[in-house]
Design goal:
elongated
Length: 302
């Protein structure tokens, strides 16, 4: 197909050339050239023209059979565009050439100034001044750039100090873990203190009991001797029994309060466990519904 299109373009060019030749022959005939020579040339050109027309017709038949008319039109438009681009390139090159010639003339003029004595020294002085001014301007630009760079680095450090979302999430996790560890340590410490206080109270009670038994043992022999001492011993024993009963009542009351607190905590724990199970059930149902939704979406998409 591409060969046919190239051939068609070549045939078109040949037709254009033949028409130009015919026009030139007509001009020659007007100028008085020999008619025989012109007839021979005209016959030859007509034969070429007929051959070119046949080639064009053959190519057009091949294009129509291949259903490539749109391709040919696209290629013809591309050829036209290529020609336009060539013209634009030539139009763009012409001012470039002029600018090049102008710059070459300026270079020749500068070389002539450099070769001269007085003019060359003036030019060198002006060139030195221009270089010094350029260096001063360059230094000022470097200073401005350095200050701008320092400001940029300061802003970058400020931006680096601001934590990102990922870092904030990591910080939150670490603080949560630290809070959990602190709570565990606090509970463990409270348990140790409670154990210590209970053991200390047991120690005090045992010391009191030991001292009481020692006191009773020391007074028992004297109290058996007469009835008055027996009555005093009995009264003291009743007072001791009453104090022990009060102490026992206080301990039982404290035990009941602790038992009530324990029961309340058990109820709260049971409610939290039930709520956790309900949340797990809801999460499982939600995941199942999400899976069903995704399956339906894939089925609809297919």
């Amino acid at each position: 197909m591409s060969e046919a299109i190239k051939s068609q373009g070549t045939c078109s060019e040949r037709l254009i050339e033949e028409n130009k030749c015919l026009q030139s022959l007509q001009v020659d005939s007007d100028n008085g050239v020999s008619m025989d020579i012109l007839k021979e040339d005209v016959d030859e050109l007509n034969q070429k023209k007929v051959a070119v027309v046949k080639d064009l017709q053959f190519l057009q038949d091949r294009v129509s059979k291949a259903n490539a008319n749109h391709v040919v039109q696209n290629l013809m438009s591309c050829l036209k565009t290529l020609e336009d681009l060539g013209k634009q390139e030539s139009e763009l090159l012409s001012p470039c050439d002029a600018q090049r010639i102008k710059l070459q003339a300026e270079i020749f003029e500068l070389e002539g100034r450099l070769t001269g004595d007085h003019e060359g020294s003036n030019f060198l002085d002006s060139l030195d001044n221009f270089i010094s001014e350029s260096e001063e301007e360059l230094n000022s630009v470097k200073k401005a750039l350095a200050s701008r760079l320092r400001e940029t680095l300061a802003l970058k450090r400020l931006l680096d100090d601001v934590p990102t979302q990922t870092e904030l999430i990591q910080y939150e996790r670490r603080f949560s873990e630290l809070y959990i560890n602190i709570q565990d340590k606090h509970r463990q410490t409270r348990r140790y203190y409670a154990t210590y206080n209970a053991l200390l109270e047991i120690k005090d009670l045992m010391l009191k009991e030991t001292s009481l038994l020692n006191s009773i043992s020391s007074q028992f022999q004297d109290a058996i001797a007469n009835s008055m001492s027996q009555m005093k011993l009995i009264e003291s024993m009743e007072g001791i029994l009453k104090g022990i009963q009060q102490k026992l009542d206080k301990v039982l009351l404290s035990h009941q309060e602790e038992q009530q607190v324990c029961n309340a905590l058990k109820e709260k724990y049971a409610a939290a466990t039930a709520e956790q199970r309900r949340c797990y059930a809801l999460l499982k149902a939600f995941q199942e519904e999400c899976a069903k939704n995704e399956k339906l979406r894939t089925q609809n998409s297919t």
